[in-house]
Amino acid sequence: MNTTASGDTSGVWLASTVWNLLEEKYGQGNVPSVRKLTQHIREANSGATISHGHVHNILSGDATNITDRTREMLARFFGLPPSRFVPANDTASAGGGQQLEESLAFRFSSLQPEELAAIEKALRMVKEQEKGGGG
């Protein structure tokens, strides 16, 4: 089985692509649950399926690469060529800092306000420690 790393080790590119396609297909705010999505993917692929866990990982940005089989199943489900699920620039070159920031923003978007506040507090603590030269 061939796997193709996208060069996007965070999986954010794939998650963003799939989310955008899902919102086009179902309408913004109407994307079904992971369980329903896996059922729809199975129906579009003559009974072949992607596991709930893998669909969840793809949508959350935790899938750092996908197999050709998964790519083909997603393509069939969306009615697109498999190449749609391969980044145009499949090397992580220029803009690495921005890519990291986008990756973190994507992951933080699912956090609760108290979790974000804790992260902000931890960052302030680290910055204060750096200013004081502590370690």
Report on this model:
The chain is mainly alpha-helical and 135 residues long. 58% of the residues lie in helices and 4% in strands. α1 (12-26) crosses α3 and α2 crosses α4 (68-78). It is elongated and about 60 Å long. The model is unreliable at 1-9 and 91-95 (pLDDT under 50).
Estimate the helix proportion, in percent.
55-70%
What is Rg?
Answer: 18 Å
Low-confidence stretches: 1-9, 91-95
> Into which percentage range does the β-strand content fall?
under 5%
Terminal residue distance: 47 Å
**Count of helical stretches:** 6
- In total, the number of strands is 2
The largest sheet is: 2 strands, antiparallel
Instruction: Name the structural class.
Output: mainly alpha
Helix and strand run: EHHHEHHH
Mean pLDDT: 81
Shape: elongated
Strand order, sheet with most strands: 1-2
Produce the secondary structure layout.
Layout: E1 3-5, H1 12-26, H2 34-44, H3 52-60, E2 65-67, H4 68-78, H5 96-108, H6 113-131
Antiparallel strand pairs: 1-2
Summarize the structure.
The protein is mainly α and 135 residues long. It has six helices and two strands. The N and C termini lie far apart (47 Å).
Essential attributes:
mainly alpha, two-stranded antiparallel ribbon, 135 residues, 2 strands, elongated
